[in-house]
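Blackboard transcription, Thursday session:
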Amino acid sequence: MRPASPVHPPLIRNRPLLALAVFLALGAFLLPVLSHAPNRLISGRPVPLLSLPATSLALMAAPALLLGAGAFLPQSRRSLQAVALAAALFISSLLFAAGAEASRLGAEASAAARSSLGSGFWVMLLAACLILADSLARAGLPAPARLLAGVAAFIPAALMIGFGHLDDLSVMKEYANRADVFRQAVVEHLVIVVGALVPTLLIGVPLGVLASRRPGLGRRTLAGLGVIQTIPSIALFGLLMAPLSALALAVPALGAAGIRGIGLAPAIIALTLYCLLPMVRNTAEGLARTPRGVVQAARGMGLTERQILWRVRVPLALPVFLSGLRVTLAQSIGLAAVAALIGAGGLGSIMFQGLFANALDLVLLGAVPIVVMVMAVDALFRFAAGSLRIGASDGATAATGAGR
Amino acid sequence: MSALAQPHPASRTGAAMRRLVVALTLFGALLVAMPFSRSLFAWLFPRLERPLYEQHGFVALVLAHLGLVAASGLCAVIVGMGAAIFVTRPAGREFRSLIETLTAIAQTFPPVAVLALSVPMIGFGFGPAFLALALYSVLPICENTISGIEGVPPSAMQAGEGLGMTPHERLFRVELPLAAPIILAGVRTSFSINIGTAAVASTVGAVSLGAPIIIGLNGNNTAYVLQGALLITGLALVVDAAFEAIQARLQRWNAG
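(Written on the board underneath:)
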């Protein structure tokens, strides 16, 4: 494109927003927003967006027009915040319209009828989420405020799920059919993650402290843990299976205590092995990053080595340590899904059950909560790190750069 | 990274080459010996009727696995580097924050979830596995290419300009060569994740080294699981060692 002439301001002020708005419009008009089938065995007929009732369309059109117009407005903080708000409203109205249409179609058909979310829905949701994230990033808010705004955008969605407005969508029907299984799967998933986190902290933190004191040992430890990281999770589960089942056979007491080739034991051992790397590395890096001058000043003030550790090194290492913890947790929530293959349970078992049975709604019911959990952990730790950074903004910020 | 990580370039090359040779030898030996190991596995697992996986040849599985990872990786290199080059040019600069937001959000998705969610889009088999692997590996490659190009010192760019290079020449002769080590690190990350995801992709009907594991798990055949796990581990270590060797070469070459 030609550079704008100095006389006329450019017509398009935000080309990425325009591109996303066009993407959203293509999804809205070319792809079905829902797919409706008389029962779960027959593949559904597409429900185009324009066949929705006028009230739903009007509800979505208002924020959508604002999104499109945002590309032509002067780009100020205020206008970007307005675009973010419009994106949030669009996401809510899209969900509301989809839920209402599913109820309307459900009322006309038999109880076995199913309305599932169509490709157009996902394209519009993706485009609106990207517009929301991008305009929040451009609006120049501090990171914690950005995160809070992002979370607030999904409160209406949570309320709609909570108050049953989406109950006629097939995913939610699938959930209602197996609410107990789902709840148990969430608990199992958390048990795996926390079960791996405890030994990771107990082993990883002392190892990290040791590594920060003896760089030679630290290098060798990290190299060894790095080799473990390169082994794919499914293979590590498989490698642990034979020795553990042999152990359970040889020592029946261990078998009775739940140490077997399949189930929780190999899952927790494998996850711990993976999580040690970020934990040891970030603990060591955090502690090693304390500026020499700060330590000397503390010594000069008469602090003992122990006091220096707890009052100087640990607070300065905390942000790097927290980012290690964030990586650890995000990684183990994802890996725990694979552990379902070796019978450890959790949300992965719902997901794989859906994959094996070719049931899309089950796949969604398993996979979406996993993604939401990872994002929640990620956001929580970034929020904590952001607040720490603001609290320690004088000089200590130098220690926070590691780990993205 | 930090003081904890980097040894001298020359010693890094030597160590990397030794590691690659060891990994290749062990993996090759494992692959050749596996079809003849029936009696070993029969002795280890006396209760199994079929102690050796024979539905596919192991060499064929390795090739299919590597093919899936390499094809999706190549696709991701083209798309990821292309996007990164676009957003670091004046014409695409506006799109940079969008691309960075996209990669940051997408990387919080676990690879297995990407795999599972791509099945509804294209059905079972090679397709969803290829799509999920390619989609997921675009992210680290794109991210690293951007930070690699951003890290090119302004003095190098000015020198290129002073030599009368066109923007096109500067990209291929200054920016990309200087960014190569960081780009390669991104490609290594992608390949490492993809070798694992390709194994899990056996659950959606793709042919890979995950097949013995999945079939073994479904049929309570621990020997199959062990055979698949050993070969995947070997393959992952060989590929990682190969990347380490290339990176070490590159570092030495860049150092002088």
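Lecturer's comment: The mean pLDDT of chain B is 87.
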